[in-house]
Model the fold of this input.
Amino acid sequence: MPLFDHLKPFAISLSALLAATGGAAASETSYYSGKPWEIVLHVPDAQNERPYCAFRTSLWETRSISIEKMIGAGDEVAIALRIRKDAWQLPDNQTTTVAADTVMGMVEVPMKSIDKQELYSGVPTVPVLLYNAVIGAMLDSVLAARQPQPLPIKFSGNEPLWTVPALDRFQAFEMNDAFKRCALDLRGLQSKTEQDGSSQGVTSPFSTTLSTGQPPAQPSVSSQLSAAPSDWEFYTRDEDWGPTCFAQTHHGIVMVGFMGSPGKDDLVGFVSSLFSGDTRATWHVDEEPAYVSDGGESDYFGWHEFGQLPMELLDQASEGKELAVTGAKGERIAVSLRGASSSISKFKECFGKPDPDSAAASSAQPN
Done:
C-alpha cells in the first residue's frame, strides 16, 4: 500500500464540528491520524477553558506527550506541553522540570502536576514567550523538513527516558500542513467565540478623545520602549563548523533571526515553521528597501536559511519597528523589533570579530 494512502490525514470541517457539538459539548476534530503522532483540534465543554490544537503522541495506550497551541487574550499565541501517564501518582500542585534534545540543543520546561496522572506547563512564573521558544524548538525538531528528529523526553526523579521515534520526510510534510490547517480553524473558532461574547461589552478601535476633539496625548517613544521587555535574544554556540553567533525572536511557533560565524562575510537569515521547499523571500524593515534572497531548508537545523543578506539590514533592524519576511507564495511573518537593538548590537560585535581559525594560523606563521 502506498505510504500516502496508509497515512492520509482524516479531517472534519470546523462547521461540521460545531454543528455536531452545538458549540457546547467537548469534542475533538482529527486533522492527521497516524503513528507516532496525531493532530486534533480540542474544543472543551467548559466555557473558561480555551480550545487548542494538539500535536499529540499516538504511540502508547497508557501515556502521552501533547504539544498544544492556543490563542489567548489579545490574539496572543501560546504553546503548552502536557505529559500524562496512567500509572503515575503525582503530588498535588508540585513543580518539576522535563528536558528535551532539540535543534536549539537541550531545553528544559518547568511543569506542574495538575492531577495525579498529568503534568502541564502552565506555571505562571514563566513567561509565555519562553514557553513558545522552548516548546516551539521541540516542534521544529520533530517537523524538520529534510531530517526530522526523534523527541527524547528526560524527567527528573526516577521516571525513565521517553523517546518518540522520528517521522519520515513525507510524514513531517503532511503533519506540518495539517497543523497549519488546525491553527487556521482554531483562529476561526476563536473569532466565533469572541463574536458570541461581544454583547457583553462595547469595544472600539478608537481611543477616548478629549472634549476639544483632539486625541489624548500619547506617551513618548522612549517610555513605550522601556515599558516592554525585548522579545529578541542573542547567544553564541559552537557548531560543527566552529563558533556561531545568533540573534532571534519568536512569533508563536515561527522563529526568525540571523546567524553568522565570526570573521565570515555571509550574513544568514533564518525562519522556522513557515516555508516548505526551496523558496525566495524578501526581507524588509518598515518602509526601508526590501532585500531579496533565495533560501532552502537546512539539513543541519531544519529551518529555512537565506544567505548573503546585507549588513544594512541589521542596521535597519536596530532602529526599526518591524521586520517582515515574505515568501514568493505569499507566506509572511512580521516580528516586532521593539528592544531588538541590544541583541542585534551584540550579534554585530560577535559577527565582526576575526575568524579564530585564521587568527590562529597567522600567529603560527614564522616572522
